[in-house]
Amino acid sequence: PYVIASPCIDVMDKSCTEECPVDCIYEGERKLYINPKECIDCGACEPVCPVEAISQDRRVPADDHAFVEDNRSFFVAVLPGRDEPLGAPGGSNKVGPVGIDTPLVADR
Ligand code: F3S
Ligand code: F3S
């Protein structure tokens, strides 16, 4: 899947969400996250990000490698203040802004 790394934090341009054909890019408080279970690897989001935050998981820059697992954990871990993981809800428009970040992002 594709991954959103640190340059998105506090930028949240959201051009990526308009490109995604399966609506699998979800909004936290300070960053967006790609659902690895829903991303179909089309790559349409990558070129539109003005800060180049998006890349395929195996091409994420080494110093941002923690964001590969972190994008996954946004959906499989129980986020602070919630009772259950987000899982694969089938579309970010359906869910709306989640308004919470993973600890990795919240602590930056
Ligand atoms: Fe973030 Fe870039 Fe999308 S800044 S919201 S990954 S267009
Ligand atoms: Fe969507 Fe980007 Fe994946 S456009 S399907 S998140 S590669």
UniProtKB/TrEMBL annotation:
Keywords: 3Fe-4S, 4Fe-4S, Electron transport, Iron, Iron-sulfur, Metal-binding, Repeat, Transport
GO molecular function terms listed in the Swiss-Prot or TrEMBL record: 3 iron, 4 sulfur cluster binding; 4 iron, 4 sulfur cluster binding; electron transfer activity; metal ion binding
Span of domain 4Fe-4S ferredoxin-type: 30-59
Stretches the record annotates as Disordered: 86-108
Alphabetized InterPro entries for the sequence: 4Fe4S_Fe-S-bd, 4Fe4S_Fe_S_CS, 7Fe_ferredoxin, FdxA_Actino, RnfB_subfamily
Cofactor: [3Fe-4S] cluster; [4Fe-4S] cluster
Superkingdom of origin organism: Bacteria
Function summary: Ferredoxins are iron-sulfur proteins that transfer electrons in a wide variety of metabolic reactions.
Protein name: Ferredoxin
